[in-house]
Amino acid sequence: MSFLEKIRRASEKNGSRIVLALDLEGTERKQLEEASVDILRNTSQHLCAVKINRQLVLALGLKGGVDSIVQVAHQLSLPAIMDAKLNDVGHTNEFMMRSYIEAGFDAVVASPVAGWEGGLDGVFKLANSHQKGVLLLVYMSNPGAAAFYSLTVGNGGKKPGLMFERLTELAVEWGAHGIVVGATRPEIISHVRELTGLGMDIYTPGVAVQGGDAKKALDAGADYLIVGRAIYNADDPAKAAKNFRDIT
What pTM, to 2 d.p., does this model score? Predict the structure, then answer.
């Protein structure tokens, strides 16, 4: 089953468009892994996927650590996304992609600024041959993102446009399985939706703690909300996850 089929099936089953960003931090390995698994299990019925960033990979390791959390996600019928933000030369990107596939991840986040040839071409080849997904980062959620993503850039002799517009065009051109746009900029989400039409899923991080409004992001055209600290740092993570799910 492909990544797109998995997340859509999980979303339908749980009535949810919430992706849990499981980005816990800590120095005690066993405690960190147990806390991550506990939160995942307690919130799973309100989720459509789980996303893991490099905090857990660095703290737990990929093999015998994070891959165990991925297994739990699969037991709960949730796909797992690795927020790798792949952005290197081809052979390095391919090594990382193979490693994440071997760890059981269903999709990775990559940065299109690496380019296609000798950049992300091998990543897409691996993803497609293993029915995995590649989500391309089009606009980050942090305040300083505009300095890069809203730059005016040339476009092969065509009329210049903004960087995120060109990155969105590349996501469509390369056949990405989704794009990432920060919830802190609903006007950008709306514009990206206009550029892609309805054929491309938009994943939206930066909800709540970073100031993004869940309802405004969805109204602007987001398909999935990525929520982390507002869930896993809550007194009752399951209730917090349910509250976000109910917004959708």
Answer: 0.96
